[in-house]
Amino acid sequence: MSLLEVQESILETVSDGEPLAVPRMRPASGGGPHPLIVMFMDKPGIREGLRVFGRRLAANGYDVILPDLYHRHGRMIGYGPAELAADPGAGDRLVSLMMSLTDEGIQNDLDAALEAVAADRPAGSLAPAGCIGFCLGARAVFRTMIRLPDQFKAGAMWHPSFLVDGEPDSPHLTAGGLAGSLYAGFGEADKMMSVASMQPFIQAVSALGDRVTVDILPGADHAYTWPDAHTYNEAAAERAWSQTLALFGSVLTPARG
Questions:
Q1: Which residue from 52, 70, 73, 229 lies 20 to 30 Å from 91 (Cα-Cα)?
Q2: Which domains does the chain have, with CATH numbers?
Q3: Three-class SS string for 18-62?
Q4: Edge-to-edge strand list for the sheet holding 181-187
Q5: Cβ contact 70:40 at 8 Å
Q6: Is pTM, for the whole model, over 0.90?
Q7: Which ranges of the chain have pLDDT less than 70?
Q8: Phi and psi (nearest 5°) for 152?
């Protein structure tokens, strides 16, 4: 099945009173419909690795948007491995930026991004939609699917984090309310968020039946996704990709070239 040519743009909007950039990658051809996918970034922010991933989704028939969750601190802050190596203070800055994020703020950013992209899509075409998140973005996937179940019918989590906490609304305690279909790809050797630490969430979503796939990826560490990361695991990344594409294809039925 042939891949589609991709065009890129940046939607400009406002969230919580601050400018919000929303990179967008979608099929260049008309036709469609091209189902909407929201990508939720991980700690390193918006950098080339995320854009490459978004282009790959777009080439498979999806309209992909990537809200800049760090927009309250600057425009499209992002660090690839080379930038991190060149800036000794970048790691600490990213931790500070990550800790500034809140569920409410992320959902506000999502709403602003959805409103912006809706202006450039056919009326009523924002559903069914999907979402995918990496690391901290996996928590955003969960919150989105819980809050907007009629719109977001499918979600994918890659090397998930922050799904088990001590709050009453922790994802592991509220997973019973998940209505859509979910893929969750955990690295078997994740040193940042171990499979053991995620077990309460894994058990909760596993109880939802065959619309949830929990995938423990052999030998994979955290951030197995990114080819430019030292923890990249090609076998794990390709398996997670195949599972994610199959999920989105079955639930969202994208147009193909």
A1: 52
A2: 6-252 (3.40.50.1820)
A3: EEEEEEEEEECCCCCCCCEEEEECCCCECCHHHHHHHHHHHHCCC
A4: 6-15, 18-27, 63-65, 36-40, 129-134, 152-158, 181-187, 212-217
A5: no
A6: yes
A7: 1, 254-257
A8: -95, 100
